[in-house]
Amino acid sequence: MLSSCPHLDEVNFWQPSGNRLFRALKSGEFFLFKLHSPENFIVGGGIYAHSSLLPISLAWESFGISNGARTLTEMRARVAKYRRQKADRTADYTIGCILLEQPFFLPRQSWIPVPSDWSPNIVQGRGYDLSVGFGLTLWSQVQSVLTLPSVSEVKEDRPQYGEPVLVRPRLGQGSFRVMVTDAYDRRCAITSERTLPALDAAHIKPYFESGLHLVNNGILFRRDIHALFDKGYITVTPSMQVEVSRRIKEEFENGRDYYRHHGGQIRLPAASADQPSSEFLEWHNTNVYKG
Questions:
Q1: What span, in angstroms and rounded, lies between the C-alpha atoms of 38 and 116?
Q2: Which listed residue, of 2, 86, 188, 226, carries a Cα 20 to 30 Å from 271's Cα?
Q3: This prediction's pTM
Q4: C-beta separation of 99 from 49 below 8 A
Q5: Which residue range is the domain that position 136 belongs to?
């Protein structure tokens, strides 16, 4: 189904159990798709970006049919089947999510047989060093049938597993949402609200203004604060302080719950690379904030 979807920029390769994170790859390494036995062929793949444990409702909101199902009901029923449980239309199962960017699918005539050392008992996948042996042969076969990102896109200058294929994944909207949510430890940056359905990943510089799906172009907000941020009634300064516009009171004769956060520092992601970019914050302060 996914191979027939045009302009697909991301997929959620989910696991029904939802009890452990996927840690076999680094961001930017390649994840390849193998069909179920007896169809022992590699038929496509994508660039690994992130792993998360998500309620199925959030996975559906974030990725829709990029989960490989046409509806949430269909996806929920499939999870129940794999768990050997009776389908529950209201269950918000926690599932393991492997976020893959720039997915590709090989035409039938270009399917690649799995390496000859592949065991039929393998069910969770297997990693290969693409610089030697079976891994090198496999990588050569993939390259021969597909145009892949160039080595100029290598993510960082360090020793790495499968060095020729560590590339900078271009995040889609769903992956952006999940990765920002996880970067902020699933808590609103201003209020510390932890009710996940009430939280949104906000772009600092909007996508329609050429703001990219980068984690450092995002902040996790409670949904009402997200709406005010997008409309310019709230901003965050490059010094990571909250500013609340006087126009909330002028226009709506209210705003006490928001003004109490004025001047406070936002909660920041632990990883410095995930923290809001001062460049994007300055853009929001100048072009969106009402002052």
A1: 14
A2: 226
A3: 0.88
A4: yes
A5: 2-165
